[in-house]
Amino acid sequence: MCSLATPETAGGWGTFERLCVPTPPADAKEKMIVPVSCIHVATRKRVGKAQRGPEMLKVGHIVYDVLFLEPTAKGTFKRIGRGVIFDKNIMKDFDLTEAEEFQLE
Q1: How many domains are there within the chain?
Q2: Do residues 58 and 40 lie in contact, with contact meaning Cβ atoms separated by under 8 Å?
Q3: Burial tier of 44 (Cβ tally within 10 Å: 0-12, 13-18, 19+)
């Protein structure tokens, strides 16, 4: 998962139960980006085995748990997956958004 502002940088991971992804043309030379909406549902410290690598992957780093959503024809949303955001720049984007009310199916 990545931000649209920095699609070359992984900022988290996601698993999708259902996601309609168009088939790219056979001669496509670039990666395909499928925009998906998500909501922040929890904040927690990453737990598990210590890993080498960027600070964002180390135990104790704050991560955001998110649900990926798709709008429905009824004006509601349905869950299509879940994931974790560990990139601080994407987390800042979430922190700047205003709270909204919506309904899940």
Answers
A1: 1
A2: no
A3: exposed
Helix segments in 29-103, DSSP class H: 88-96
* pLDDT 10s digits, 5-57: 887 888 888 888 877 666 766 776 666 666 788 899 999 886 655 554 454 55
Give domain status of residue 26, yes or no. no
- Cβ count within 10 A of residue 57: 14
Q: Which domain holds residue 6?
A: 1-18+35-99
CB atoms under 10 Å from CB of 99, counted, come to 4
> Distance from CA of residue 18 to its chain's centroid?
14
The answer to whether residue 104 sits within a structural domain is: no
Task: Identify whether 24 is part of a domain.
Answer: no
- Residue 80: inside a domain: yes
